[in-house]
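Problem: given the chain below (121 residues), write out its structure.
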Amino acid sequence: MSQVRAIRGATQLEANTSAAMEAATKELLLEMLAANELTPEDLISVFLTVTPDLNAAFPAAFAREVGFASVPLLCAVEIDVPGALQRVLRVMMHCQTTRTSSEIAHVYLHGAKALRRDIAQ
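Solution.
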């Protein structure tokens, strides 16, 4: 039986550029879909957040380029906590899936693996 689940993901960008945002967004979203055997049609909504030092481009624009055109997307800025990891894109994806919560694969790439060593791939 299909249920609603939330999937977390994060990655660290190499720089605050549109090209870096494009590459990071596409890589992370596609990896999250693949790791959980999902397609954009399975998605309910996606929240994309960035650290305050990332303002070169909207990650939602690049999500649309990889099949998320019909998925409700929302971008926001993370809290500016002193000493926090910089240049981080975070994602919370809500989906319909038959997987149990323990079967969900949360995806942390590049420097963002340090954020959740307990669940990073």
